[in-house]
Amino acid sequence: MTDGNQPIQQHQPAQHQPAQQQSKHKHKHPAHRLGGVIVATALPYYENATAPAGLAVDYDRYAEHCRWLVDSGCDGVGPNGSLGEYSSLTDEERRRVARTAVEAVGGAGSVVVGVHGVGSHQARHWAELAAEDGADGVLCLPPTMYRANRGEILAHFTAVASVGLPVMVYNNPIDTKVDLTPDLVAEIAQIDNVVAIKEFSGDVRRVLEIRERTAGTGLEVVSGADDVVLESLLMGASGWFAGFPNVFPAASARLFELATAGKLEEARALYEPLVAAFRWDSRTEFVQAIKLGMEQVGRFGGPCRPPRGPLTPAMREQVEADMARAISALGEQPALGEQPALGRQSVPDERSTPDERSTPEERSSPDERSTRTEQGAAR
């Protein structure tokens, strides 16, 4: 599929071998490059009448956002997830988004690309492209749009893992209607190159059960829901694949640090005023809510492509109230009251409004933007 933009320029493969070579050398990968705070990145658009739904992907702004998240203390970014509206992108856009993230972050952080697909052949295809483009790993749902059975789920992840990149399987029974229960996860963990699970069931009891059932496999449990992240980390989750760090990257990195260090009192003090905002990460309108939150701290959030529409007035008011509480609380904490912690990076003047932007051909590439307008908390 295309959107009328210029063809993607030739891109030289990064560190990983071509997929057809990798599949011959399967082994268990260490999961550290898929751990820590990985941000499921929101995707910015600008108005363009020739683009799908009249909204074109703003690759320059997206590259700047990826760099800012890592500079602010997060461990990496996750392009082409649900928050990144992957299902609303053309094939060309989807690959270019992943490439943009890889190029923007460089070696400063991890890039875990979403490779979700209706069938294993589609998901494997996206994993092969991610490997060619230099991703550190992939995030993969079970088959989408189909309630797969146990055997089909195992075949799906086996196909994706055969590409050779580290695979983080994604349990999201709310959206997929397929629940990767702990006993099934124990089977999935036996697949070469499956190194982690993003757990989004909301049931924190599963963290310990999964760890018990997969003992000896090296499988890492990653918290997938922002509003149970502290509980999950205290139960042994080793990562956070997150949405609201798009809004509060340094504060989120600090929360992860406190929780994994066992500093419960400090972690609770930071976490509690954020939870009301974090709950939006588990609601249907999470993309719109997080983009609105970004706007409230001075970042660019912008609109969503269909099928997502604008928030209702009542929802918008509630998001703004929940965000205001979080912003106020962070501002009262000396270590987190500075702008980098809150994510208060002003949008550069030349990026003031999407409709004033030049055409994609006239804009500079991510590699040409060497100045990072804000240095966040130390990683």
Describe this structure as you would to a colleague:
Helix 2 packs parallel to helix 3 (91-105). The protein has a domain at 26-261: Alpha-Beta Barrel (TIM Barrel), CATH 3.20.20.70. Helix content is 37%, strand content 11%. Strands 1-4-5-6-7-8-9-10 form an 8-stranded parallel β-barrel, surrounded by 6 helices. Strands 2-3 form a two-stranded antiparallel sheet. With 379 residues, it is of the alpha/beta class. It starts with 18 loop residues before the first helix and ends in a 37-residue tail after the last helix. Strand 4, helix 3 (91-105) and strand 5 (110-114) form a beta-alpha-beta unit. Mean pLDDT is 85; it is low at 1-32 and 337-379. 52% of the residues are buried.
Task: List strands and helices in order, with pairings.
Elements: H1 19-22, E1 36-40, E2 45-47, E3 55-57, H2 59-71, E4 76-78, H3 91-105, E5 110-114, H4 120-133, E6 137-140, H5 150-161, E7 167-171, H6 173-176, H7 182-188, E8 194-199, H8 205-213, E9 220-223, H9 229-234, E10 239-242, H10 249-260, H11 264-271, H12 275-278, H13 286-296, H14 313-331, H15 339-342
Parallel strand pairs: 1-4, 1-10, 4-5, 5-6, 6-7, 7-8, 8-9, 9-10
Antiparallel strand pairs: 2-3
Helix pairs in contact: 2-3, 3-4, 4-5, 7-8, 10-11, 13-14
How many strands appear in the DSSP assignment?
10
Q: For the terminal residues, how far apart are their CA atoms?
A: 38 Å
| CATH fold name of one domain | TIM Barrel
Report the helical percentage. Answer: 25-40%
The averaged pLDDT comes out at: 85
Low-confidence stretches: 1-32, 337-379
**The CATH homology group name of one domain:** Aldolase class I
Tell me the number of helical segments per DSSP (H or I, 4 or more residues long). Answer: 15
Percent strand equals 5-15%
Strand/helix succession: HEEEHEHEHEHEHHEHEHEHHHHHH
Radius of gyration: 19 Å
The neighbouring-strand order within the major sheet is: 1-4-5-6-7-8-9-10
CATH class division of one domain? Alpha Beta
* Outline: globular
How would you characterize the largest beta sheet? 8 strands, parallel, barrel
Structural class by sheet pairing and helices: alpha/beta
CATH level-two architecture of one domain? Alpha-Beta Barrel
